Amino acid sequence: MTTPRAIQFSFLAREQSEGAGAVVRRSVGTPQLRNFTPFLMLDHFRIPPGAGFPDHPHRGQETITYLLKGGVDHEDFAGNKGTIGPGDLQFMTAGRGIMHAEMPVQTEDINVGMQLWVDLPENLKSCEPRYRDLRAGEIPVASADDGKVEVKVISGKSQGVESLKDLAYTPVWFLDVTVRPGGKVTQELPQGWNAFAYTLEGTVTFGDGTKEVGETVTPYHNVVFERGGDVVTADVEEGAAEAARFILVAGLPLDQPVVQYGPFVTTSKEAVYQAMMDFQTSSNGFERAANWESEIGKSMGRVR
């Protein structure tokens, strides 16, 4: 027997400005949903040409960037650089320190994607930075309900299909789910993990283990599930005008404090102060930040 997860609450992610000219719908990391362990932030971003996220530091977290449309260039102080396109992802572990820039490909009209910040366990916060690009063609796809449901298994498992391994240090499942009119999916999730869905397109009804009728949700909402239970159910009514698309994310909760100051995520105030000092003095992981300037961010100036 499987137990459906009840819905704790849901809310609309409203647009706000971020970076230099970018617009984001932030849901995790807002007063409605702050530090939903291990998740620190979720942004649904739109970046026009000429905007972006010029040179900036990170410490103590991992980021998962999922591009839906357009292209984003990346460059860091260690000489790493690259571009992700539609359907591609980048998993970045900031660890003890990274400084990088993320800028849209200038030939695109608009660049749309998701960026999720995931906390690192205390014992890994001082690890060396690393990257793992995941290309659209590498992502296995599962199907259900006679083809009415398609799941891109970015990280985790769905309908018996497993993702590639070793994408991030903190255990996270990340699924891109499309449900066509008349379709229904029952998705397993690891017991005890925190989980949420973020709706991108169409209208979808998520089942609720405490009610006979679930909650029907339109785009740009974050649906937070209770920790109890082992499946999430979602369906789209037969006569719907379009398919529904959402990402379903689950992560292993971390039993540790979260102390965050902008891009620095630690477990104590002292460690945050130390991170700020290390960045300002280019030390303890930020040595290569001294006088470094990315090529892709030069047009926008350096943000310190």
List keywords for this structure.
single chain; 304 residues; mainly beta; Jelly Rolls; 1 helix; 26 strands; 4% helix; 46% strand
Please tell me about this protein's structure:
This protein has one domain (about 5-250): Jelly Rolls (Sandwich), CATH 2.60.120. The protein has a seven-stranded antiparallel β-sheet, with no helix packed on it. A seven-stranded antiparallel β-sheet has the order 2-3-4-11-6-9-12, with no helix packed on it. Strands 5-10-7-8 form a four-stranded antiparallel β-sheet, with no helix packed on it. It has one helix and 26 strands. A hairpin with a 2-residue loop joins strand 25 (about 260) and strand 26 (about 265). With about 300 residues, it is mainly beta. The mean pLDDT is about 95. It is globular, with a radius of gyration of 19 Å.
Percent in helix: under 10%
**Sheet with most strands: strand arrangement:** 1-22-19-24-17-14-13
State the end-to-end CA separation: 54 Å
| CATH level-4 homologous superfamily | Jelly Rolls
CATH topology (fold) name = Jelly Rolls
**Which structural category fits the helices and strands?**
mainly beta
Based on the coordinates given, report the CATH architecture: Sandwich
List the helices and strands and how they pair.
Elements (H helix, E strand, L loop, with lengths): L6 E6 L2 E4 L3 E5 L12 E9 L5 E6 L2 E9 L2 E5 L4 E4 L4 E5 L4 E7 L6 E9 L10 E5 L6 E4 L4 E7 L1 E2 L2 E2 L9 E8 L4 E5 L5 E8 L2 E3 L8 E3 L3 E5 L5 E5 L8 E8 L7 E3 L2 E3 L2 H13 L23
Antiparallel strand pairs: 1-22, 2-3, 3-4, 4-11, 5-10, 6-9, 6-11, 7-8, 7-10, 9-12, 13-14, 14-17, 15-16, 17-24, 18-23, 19-22, 19-24, 20-21, 20-23, 25-26
